[in-house]
Amino acid sequence: MEASTTSFSSLMGSSRTRTLIAFSFVTFSFLCLAIADGSATQQESCDMYQGNWVYDTSYPLYNSSACPFIHNDFNCLKYGRPDHLYLKYRWQPINCQLPRFDAEQLLKTLKGKKLVFIGDSISLNQWQSLVCMLHAAVPTSRIIKQHLYNHSIPAVTFKDYNVSVLLFHTLYLVDVDEETIGRVLKLNSITHGDVWKNFDVLIFNTWHWWHRKGQKQQWQYVEVDGKISKDMDRMTAFRMALTTWAKWVDSDVDANRTQVIFQGISPSHYNGAGWNEPGVRNCSRQMTPFTGPVHPTGLTHAVDVVKDVISSIKKPVYLLDITTLSQLRKDAHPSSYNALNGMDCTHWCVAGLPDTWNLLLYATLIK
């Protein structure tokens, strides 16, 4: 029986065209019959990132209580979240259907390969979601959790398929080195790239730590072209770091072997003005998606920087443009239902929204 769905919200706006090597809006193409006798076809393009959140009784894709890989900070049901509506929303593109997740097909596609998420705790969010999605579909497969590269990189390996899903933790992608003056953020340096280029699918992410200051800032100085300063404009620094990463992709990545993906910027929900509730300062007690339209925020400039930098890369790089669809999900954060009992409107419950990110990733990898 087909699962019942009810339209919840609709994003307005025209599709944006991108070049083949480009980054934005990973695009499907579907061939459909143009006339009844099937003698002609036309190609219809589908933008996976323009659509609606719809209620779907078949969701979630897995039972989070049966997944042994979920970090306690993301395990909302374990820590007492009473409402389950946030688990029941499926992303529906306007002009097409996302493929239903087929873990075995993905594992066969990736057979003999290593897929690695490279970034901060948002990458951790998506990594744990994907591992749970795979585990739920092949629970009897031989699955090994280990730490590689001097115990610094957690990995889950599905032995029957020889597929490993790894996580490389880095806040800025570029280097932060401990020197005599303190911790220095080096905007022109990526030494970890020597490790990254050994993997087959690279999924990068960075943003959340760039604007943090005071005790939450993870460096004391910033270095550009050999010159050290105490601070600089953060958006400029963000662009410089991404440009260094882009140059590394063009110089070091073997495009015949390695696929490069950039996970778009994940929004937080600490300002109710973004969803027509001025005065609200967090995501507490939010139980349904926002119906839109999404209001411009400080993320807009950061997203533009990401797209601009990726468009300059000569080798194929694909953008999982998750920002707008995620901005609608004010309901999908842990809020206070986490191990620390703090108010978290930055990360996401697992199961939950990151599963949709991985559906989009799945569509990209199997197309």
How does the major sheet shape up? 7 strands, mixed
Rough outline: globular
Mean pLDDT: 88
**Rg, nearest Å:** 21 Å
Domain Trichome birefringence-like C-terminal: 98-363
Domain Trichome birefringence-like N-terminal: 44-97
Main location: membrane
InterPro entries: TBL, TBL_C, TBL_N
In brief:
This protein is of the alpha/beta class.
Descriptive labels:
about 375 residues; alpha/beta; Rossmann fold; seven-stranded mixed sheet; four-stranded mixed sheet; 7 helices; globular; disordered N terminus
Note down, in words, how this protein is organized.
The chain has seven helices and 16 strands. The protein is an alpha/beta fold and 367 residues long. The chain has a single domain, classed as Rossmann fold (3-Layer(aba) Sandwich), CATH 3.40.50. Strands 7-8-9-6-12-15-16 form a seven-stranded mixed β-sheet, with helices on one face. A four-stranded mixed β-sheet has the order 10-11-13-14, with no helix packed on it. Helix 2 packs across helix 7. The two termini are 27 Å apart. The N terminus is likely disordered. Pfam families: PC-Esterase, PMR5N. It is a single-pass membrane protein.
